[in-house]
Amino acid sequence: MPRPPIANQIRRLRFEHGEMTQSELADSIGMTRQTVAAIEAGKYSPSLEAAFRISRVFGAALEDVFQWTDAH
Amino acid sequence: MSFREISAWITLTSVLGCFGVYFGSLATGQVRAPSFATLHLLLLCVSALVVLQIGLHAVAARLVPTSAPVLKDEREQLIQMRARGLGYYVLMSGVLALAIPGHMEISKIDLLNFALLDVVVATLVVSAAQIVMFRRGV
Predict the structure, then answer these.
(1) FRET pair for A70, CA 20 to 30 Å: which of A53, B4, B111, B121?
(2) How far is B84 from chain A, CA to nearest CA, in Å?
């Protein structure tokens, strides 16, 4: 199944927030580190709820964390 | 490796090992069904499976406590759901396939063993599918 054209800025945002580790982010949103790693690598598209949780941790808008990269 | 992936490995290897011994003994003729020896072997294998599952999961929970939350996260739930979906088709196919030996001159115990084999194969498919999805990414 083709992956949806969703990019994310989680790696950059983690770096900008005191080099937050994947484990710290995972703990703050109630997920495992492996799931955060899969989201960050674009292998798994999180639910809307999880996406909002992640953006809240960084104090950013949803669109600043996740972007739909397909032009259509 | 997350606790759930380790759990899938534990299930895959312990089911393969325990029921491998049971079906291996039947296939090589070391025990012959129906007999008390077969029943004893089956009970021994099931008991070993229960002990292995509990023991190895306890060890895994100690080794990776941070990734062993009570609730599965959404990706783990999705992986489990997809893997069980695959296992369901295997189980249903096996149950329908039981009609073939069921219409032949076959003993009840052999038919029961075919059904047990179907459950074992379905369980192995679920565990293997979980491992593949954890590794490949979902």
Answers:
(1) A53
(2) 18
